[in-house]
Amino acid sequence: MAEDDKPAVKAKIPNAKNIRSPEFTPHGISAGRGSGLNRPSALTAAQARKRRIATIAGIVVAVLAIAGGVTYYVTRPGPKIEVSGKFGSESKVKIPTKLAPSKGLKSRTLIKGSGPAIADGDTMFVQYSFYQWAKQTDADDSRKKSTSKKIGSSYEQGQQAQALTVGKSGVKGLDKGLLGKTAGSRVLVEVPPSMGFGDQGSQLGLGKNDSVVFVVDVQAVVKKNAGPQGAPQKLDDKKLPKVEDQGAGKAPKVTVPKTDAPSKLQVKTLVQGTGPALAKGDDAVVNYQGQIWKDGKVFDSSFKNGQPAMFPIGVGKTVPGFDKGLTGAKVGSRVLLVLPPAEGYGKTGNAQAGIKGTDTLVFVVDILAKVQK
Hints:
This protein is an alpha+beta fold. It has two domains: 82-136 and 144-222, Chitinase A, domain 3, CATH 3.10.50; 230-371, Chitinase A, domain 3 (Roll). It is 13% helix and 28% strand. Strands 9, 12, 13, 14, 15, 16 and 17 form a seven-stranded antiparallel beta sheet that branches. The radius of gyration is 42 Å and the shape is elongated. The N and C termini lie far apart (130 Å). Keywords: Isomerase, Membrane, Rotamase, Transmembrane, Transmembrane helix.
C-alpha cells in the first residue's frame, strides 16, 4: 500500500485537567527552582535595578557591621590600673585581678605638671602610696591573674612631702620611672621585682617575685647644686654681716662684723628671685646656713647636709624670724636674716645646737622652690 493510501491516525491530545503539575507546565511559568525559566515580573527595568542596588547595599552594611564588631573585639582596651583623686591628696587605686604584673618597668603620667623635669641627682619632694602586686593563678577562675594590697602611704602617716634624691631613693625602679617627669605631676610607676626593694622587701611583706605599684605626686623638684636665680642686690651696711657667694650648690661665706648685734629683726634680699612669692601656709624648699652672731659659729647648714630642707611658712612651725622674714619672698631669692633672741629660740635658747637665750642668730636662706599642693 502506498504511503499516501494509509488510513490517517488521529492524535490524542492530553487533557490538561488530568495531568499533574510535574507533567504539565503552562507556558512562561517556571515549574520550580532550577527550571531555567524566570517568573514574569511586574517591575520596570528601573525599579528592578533599584531593588538590586538596595539588596547589595544591605549586604554591604551587614558585612561592615560584622567587621566593625570584630574590630572592636580585637582593639578594645584591656584591663588597666585605675587611679582617681586630685593631686596632692590620697588617691584611690584599683588594680584589676584580670591584669598580670608587668615583666618590665612601666611609668605613666596621670596628671602632667608644668614645673622642672626630674634628672639624676635632683632632689624631689613627693607624696606617695604603694601596693604589693603578685601573680596568681586560680583553678576555679582562669581570668584571675593577680592579687594586690596596699602596703603604705605617706598621706596616712600625716607626713609632709618626703625628700628623695633621684638615684638614691633605695628603689631603682622608682628612680628610673620618675626621670623626665615634671614637678606638679602625678605618676603611676609599675616596678618589677628586679628593680624593687630587694632584700628589704621582706620587711614590708613582699615576696621575692612581687611587683610594686607606686602612685607618686611630685610636689617640688630642686636641681642638683641649685642656687639663687635672679638679680643680685647690693648691700653696703657695715653693721650687717657680709655674704660672699661661693658657687652653685655651695654654702656662702658669711663674715659677722665686730659690732653689737641689732636689736630688731633684719631682713635683706641679696638676690631677688623671679618665682612666685611665698604666702602664709606655703611649704618652702630652701638651702640655709645658720650662725651665731657673737662668734660666727655655724650651728646648722643644709648645704653641709647635702639635701635641701622644707619649712612651712607663716604658721608657727619654725622660729618667728623665719616666718616673718620669708613670707612674701620670691622663689629664686637669697635672703639674709638677723634674728635677735625674741625672733629666734627665745630666752631658753637651744642647748643641743649650742644656742643660748641671749644669742642673736644669722641666717642666709636660698629659696629654691615652693611645694605644689
